[in-house]
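User: Hi! I'm working on a homework problem where we have to compare a predicted structure to a textbook description. Could you give me the structure for the chain below?
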Amino acid sequence: MTVTRTGEQGHDRYRWWGLVVIALAQLMVVLDATIVNIALPSAQRYLHMSDANRQWVITAYTLAFGGLLLLGGRIADYVGRKRTFVIGLIGFAAASGIGGAAESSGMLFGARALQGLFAAVLAPSALSLLTTTFTDPRERGKAFGIYGAIAGGGAAIGLMAGGLLTEYLSWRWCLYVNIPIAVIAVIGAVLLLHDRPGHQEARLDVPGVVLGCGGLVAIVYGFSEAQPRGWDDSLVLGMLCGGVALLVVFVWWQRRARYPLLPLHIVRERNRAGSFLTMGLATIGMFGLFLFMTYYLQTILGYSPLKTGAAFLPMAAAIVIGSTQISARLLPHTAPRNLMVPGMLLAAGGLLILTQLTVEAEYATHVLPAELLLGLGMGLTFMPVMATATQGVAVHDSGVTSATVNTAQQVGGSIGTALLNTIATSAAARYVAGHQVNPRNPRPVIAAGAVHGYSVAIWWAVVIMLLGALVAGLFVTGKPPKQVPAAEQALSEEEVR
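Assistant: Happy to help. Predicted structure tokens:
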């Protein structure tokens, strides 16, 4: 039985408990983008994966997630957000169980792709439910602050959880852990969340699905393969060019489709387009950093998996503070770009510190200050980006708009991981080739080469963050959210029910 009782002024009495349910689901989705990173060496040894194939534990998830998010958003609008939310939770838990029980690399890759598919259904439903549940600007700011903290900090928390579970239980528990979370979230969703029925009169845009998802998958796959194959490889070039071509045709088709997968008026609005682009640029730098710092802490500084995960906690805490204590409090009183631009500049400053890493660098003097600056910057950025991107959207478009925000985040993270890793690896190879290596002890030169590669790639991340600040400053011109009259809030929430 769904709880739909309301309090004064039409507010759902249980909306904050509903936020807990939505936050649990979002945490589960974001965790799985990073929780297996630290567990990957153990899983690789047990399942006898090759070095070339081990990347699919990560990319199978991100490709399916990023490539199918727009479809997931449109399905949410078509059949109803609460229904797709519950279906996504159940499917994600089932896929996690399959992955945890995997006895071959192919079984694990398939389970990770299935997780990505259900995450693509779940994530836009969660964000659109949040959008339609909280309509008061002050409450909405707090809710998006919590959601933004989870979206940004969940990736770092995933690294910590991966270290704990791998060191004390097994790499399989990095997948099994999703099952109890999903069970709690399903029960909470059935009891606490409510939604209006889906739009059964609409039709899914099948050509749009093929063109849009195909283009995104091709581009992300091309960047993923650029590291092992090289930029001049025919498959990499074919995927990247083919992906761009598919997206061009996708835009052409969306202008003519009767029921477009992505209504172009959503991305034509200046503030929304600027928010999407800012999100993508922010996550390119942030997710690429997770990969470098994981390897730097473990292979250069000699940290254990658990200590590596713990080393990311200050960044997660900074993201939470930036989202809930700064952005959420200031957004009702200031323009969104007044938070986004300083946030991106702070993040760029944190990355700039990391360009000075050496083989002997100390965590407390180099890594920790960078993490705090980056975390605060991302906390300042994520919350206003998500609030601005979903503000003023018609109810029937909230699912696909939410999906576009998540697509920008996930595809940005996928591209950042693949692109910056390729830059780092190439720079490291050139460094080693230009220095004399002692055959009896090659490690010093190899380690120095690896750190040099990280520094070169992080310089590119700094440029990307600065570009994100420029985009936010020029494109996002919206004013602070205005107070909505109580009668209008009640009417809006009644429409949702």
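For your comparison, note the following. The longest helix spans residues 398-433. The chain has a mean pLDDT of 79. Good luck with the assignment!
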